[in-house]
Design a protein that fits this description.
The protein has about 170 residues and is mostly helical. Helices cover about 55% and strands about 10% of the residues. It has a two-stranded antiparallel ribbon with strand order 1-2.
Length: about 170
């Protein structure tokens, strides 16, 4: 989770007294933009057999000056953290079958069906788990992205001060 503090110098405190809505609107714009950039990076980094998980990653406004970015699929945590074996039983064979069809896996043995392949993969996942393929934590831990969001917030603060006619040196 990112936390950014809006340090109140004299101009920011004056802006908050004079027109808090203006300052909050500009900072909120900056945070929304930052949340969109976090979502874009997570979508770029997620493992993609299909685009279902990537398409489920989007920012949501969860409070004043607060945004949450998260994947909205049931299995996203299993991608992020992996499933150290043994898994909690086999994953749904139909889900694995859909994936097998999407990525174009064909049976090694001509006598096996795609359903046989899906069942074997599901059983192997149930026995051994799956490796982690982190896509959320690396983005959240990115110093460059944290710096980018801090820059966006600083830009929002400066825009609000400019809109209010409160520029540094003109107190």
């Amino acid at each position: 989770m990112f936390q950014i503090s809006l340090r109140g110098d004299e101009l920011v405190e004056r802006a908050l007294r004079q027109a808090p809505d203006e300052l909050l609107r500009e900072v909120d714009w900056a945070l929304q933009r930052g949340a969109q950039e976090v979502a874009r990076e997570e979508r770029r980094d997620v493992a993609k057999a299909t685009s279902q998980t990537a398409n489920s990653i989007y920012p949501e406004k969860t409070g004043p000056l607060e945004y949450t970015v998260a994947p909205h699929t049931d299995y996203a945590p299993h991608i992020e953290r992996g499933t150290d074996g043994p898994y909690r039983g086999m994953p749904p064979v139909q889900s694995i079958l859909d994936w097998v069809k999407t990525v174009g896996i064909t049976p090694r043995d001509p006598g096996d069906s795609l359903e046989d392949v899906a069942w074997a993969i599901a059983r192997a996942i149930g026995e051994r788990g799956t490796p982690a393929q982190p896509f959320v934590e690396p983005v959240r831990d990115s110093a460059a992205l944290q710096l980018r969001i801090a820059e966006l917030v600083e830009t929002g603060k400066t825009r609000a001060l400019t809109n209010l006619g409160l520029r540094p040196g003109r107190a």
